[in-house]
């Protein structure tokens, strides 16, 4: 076997081990109490290996959140389709988002991130910036529908935040801050349909 390929596979395995160890540490100890030393020990790798993959604890945490986000979008991206009714597309997008933010692992890490952000607003801004490096699928969809003149929206980012606020009021903040149980699939569907109808009543 090519030594280069073997080395790359070992490197990839170490990166996965670091991420898994970091998730366990963040959940067990919180953001501030977790150190790169503890992550390295749990992953059974050197501290240098951890830093070779991630320059800082903040970068590592942001990568964990991004991977959770990407996992929720496994499969084909739900791109805007000119021939499909807006309501049908929007509900599909919102149901996918609801599935992510009702995931227990995502909610647990969100609590860690929020607690870390409360203690350090600068750190919170850094995390948000890292997660915002790629435009959100919902924003991309709204932008495309507006360009096709099927939505009357001057600011797609603002409209996307409005729509996500409608969803998170039921399916994120109560679970993260008040320990409410995740929503059932039926509840998720109801919230997706209601939010889509309110959004389209304003902008379609």
Automatic annotation (TrEMBL):
* Keywords of the record: DNA-binding, Repressor, Transcription, Transcription regulation
Kindly give the SUPFAM superfamilies that the UniProt entry links to this protein: Homeodomain-like, Tetracyclin repressor-like, C-terminal domain
Q: What is this protein called?
A: Transcriptional regulator, TetR family
Q: Name one GO molecular function term.
A: transcription cis-regulatory region binding
**Lineage of the organism:** Bacteria, Pseudomonadati, Pseudomonadota, Betaproteobacteria, Burkholderiales
Task: Specify the HTH tetR-type domain's residue ranges.
Answer: 12-72
Residues passing through the membrane, by range: none
Matching entries from InterPro entries are given as: DNA-bd_HTH_TetR-type_CS, Homeodomain-like_sf, HTH-type_TetR-like_transc_reg, HTH_TetR, Tet_transcr_reg_TetR-rel_C_sf, TetR_C_Proteobacteria
Q: One Pfam family from the UniProt entry?
A: TetR_C_7
The feature table lists the DNA-binding region at 35-54
């Amino acid at each position: 076997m090519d030594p280069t390929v073997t080395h790359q596979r070992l490197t990839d395995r170490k990166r996965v081990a670091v991420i898994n160890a970091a998730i366990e540490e963040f959940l067990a100890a919180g953001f501030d109490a977790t150190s790169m030393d503890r992550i390295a020990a749990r992953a059974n790798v050197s501290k240098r290996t951890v830093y070779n993959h991630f320059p800082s604890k903040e970068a590592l945490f942001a990568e964990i959140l991004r991977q959770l986000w990407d996992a929720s979008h496994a499969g084909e991206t739900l791109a805007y389709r000119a021939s499909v009714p807006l309501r049908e597309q929007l509900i599909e997008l919102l149901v996918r988002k609801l599935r992510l933010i009702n995931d227990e692992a995502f909610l647990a890490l969100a609590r860690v991130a929020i607690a870390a952000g409360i203690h350090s607003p600068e750190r919170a801004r850094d995390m948000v910036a890292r997660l915002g490096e790629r435009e959100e699928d919902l924003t991309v969809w709204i932008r495309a529908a507006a360009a096709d003149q099927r939505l009357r929206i001057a600011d797609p980012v603002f409209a996307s935040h409005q729509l996500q606020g409608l969803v998170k009021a039921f399916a994120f903040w109560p679970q993260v801050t008040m320990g409410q149980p995740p929503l059932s699939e039926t509840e998720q569907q109801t919230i997706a349909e209601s939010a889509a109808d309110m959004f389209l009543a304003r902008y379609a």
